[in-house]
Amino acid sequence: MTKMLKTVTLSCGLGVALILALSSKGWCVPEISAGPAQSGLSIQSVEFEPICSGKNVVHVSVFNPTAKQKIFLVDIRTDGRIEWERQYTATMNAGETRRVRCAFSFVGGIAKDSSIRLRFYEPVSAGSWDDSQYFQQQLFSLSDLELTKSAKLKSVPESDARAVQAGREFSSFQQLIREEHYGKIWDSVFSKDYQDASFQSLDSFENSMTGSDSTCLFFWDRDTLLSMHPASVDSSSNLIVLSVTNGKETWQINFAPSKNGWRIDWISGYVPAVLQPPDRDKILGILLAKTQTFNTQHFEIHYYKNSTAERELNSIAQTREKGYAQIVESLELSGLPSDKKIKLFLFEDMKTKFLDTRTIGLGFAGNVAGEDIVGEVYNKKQRVDPYHELTHFLTRPYGEPPAILNEGIAVYMSERLGGAPALQYLGGRDQALYARVRDFKQKGEWISLKELLSYTNIGSQGSRTVLAYVEAGAFVKYLIETFGKDRFLDAFKKLENSEDPKILRQNQEELERIYGSPLLKLEEDWERSFLSNSP
Question: At which of 236, 255, 275 does a domain end?
Fold first, then answer.
């Protein structure tokens, strides 16, 4: 029987509860704290199976003492070499006690100061939850947890049926990868635990294999896997471990039994791209060496050979020059000196962009090795509109304001000049800003203006990315279309991007001075505007 670390809740009277954890090291007290939300659900116990660097499992027992059906959600964050989160939901009937099994992992491996944070939620629905509204948090350090002892594996001869079977399974896996049959792999090759503890969804797995989003940076590389061949096989009572190599790297692939044969239960031994050490001083030189150049009046467009960008260069050049002229004219900006051009680097996918620039996301505008550059993913399915990053580039000389103004102006200009939904490439669906922000507000999903004004960036963990982008764009739309661009640019110049409480107070006071209204009144007028107006 598997030994587990288990927490139990003991009543101490007067409504006080003490939560203890039992492991092979004896009783310990996890760091427990109540969250900002209230809930009728009660956490009965938390049991960890012994922890290892790969796949792990925790069992959460929860009780619904109410007379209503409720949704329970547990968010698991592992803080190893890479911080990673995973959510599980369960529908709780009235009076039901449910034991929820959650597989998770330490992406990139365990570090000495690794920890596991569990947060428990009672969301309105399984598909909509606010990560700040948890009702309880439990935090475990690595020292609290029982670690798995190294499994005793026996070498399997090449002629053994298990070794032959593992080789066949791996060869079939590689062929499915080559043929891009990702759905079949998901359904018939991966175990449920591997699905849950790694990619978490078929879409995420497909995106990782194609380099379509940042998932590819945290797991194994498709091309490297295809270069591997079997090296040796080991086994235990319920596991076959196939070692594969390409001469440079050696990985281990764990096969576990299932009702329908052996399935891949874990893959280890690789170093995720996000952990591969960057050489930031050489980034610009690497980019220039890898790309070809196409010049226009205001742009130095850099593209990779045989890329989508190369095939569409003339269209890209015309679109970017048009975008440049529109932004400068609309905001009455000074534009670039006659002897300077914008270095625009276009990447075929997110993986290439990360490996060559160490930036995550579809686009960025920043300073690399003393040069201001813009970088974007550009392919048939993914491309940033020509206004967002360019707006960042052209407004940077005017100030470094909080994210609500900095990201807000980029989102707003995309909608105003692009003639298409500004949030199309930000997960915001095909809606105009006011229509989208109105939907959020009416559903009760909202970030107060005071809180949003404190964000130093949008897209970091806890910033509720899509909602924050929508609100920022809609707020800047309101400011410019109600009070004009001059007041907005005044605020853009004078407000500072900082987490310092003193600066945050000064920012609020400055915004109130510029717009002649207390922050709460400004927020109320803004809400009234988008609730009453069409997109």
Answer: 275
Q: Do 166 and 220 belong to one domain?
A: yes
What are φ and ψ of residue 221, in 5° steps?
-90, 130
> Tens digit of pLDDT for each residue in 141-186?
887 777 776 667 889 898 898 899 999 999 999 999 999 999 999 9
Residue 473: how many other CB atoms lie within 10 Å: 30
Contact 291, 298 (CB under 8 A): no
Last residue of a domain, one of 275, 310, 344: 275
Conformation bin of residue 93: beta by default, left when phi > 0, alpha when psi is -120 to 50? beta
As for how many domains the chain has, the answer is: 4
Provide the pLDDT for residue 356.
Answer: 86
- CA distance readout (Å), 23 to 20, 148, 386: 10, 12, 56
Give residue-wise pLDDT tens across range 15-30: 334 444 444 444 445 6
Residue 381 to residue 133: CA distance in whole angstroms = 35
Do the Cβ atoms of 104 and 198 come closer than 8 Å?
no
Token match 């002649």: residue? Answer: 516
- Are the CB atoms for 122 and 27 separated by under 8 Å? no
Q: What is the DSSP string of 262-313?
A: EEEEEEES---GGGSPP-GGGHHHHHHHH-EEEE-SSEEEEE-TTSHHHHTH
The set of residues, in sequence order, having a beta carbon less than 8 Å from that of 345 and lying 6+ positions away, is: 287, 291, 302, 303, 357, 373, 374, 375, 376
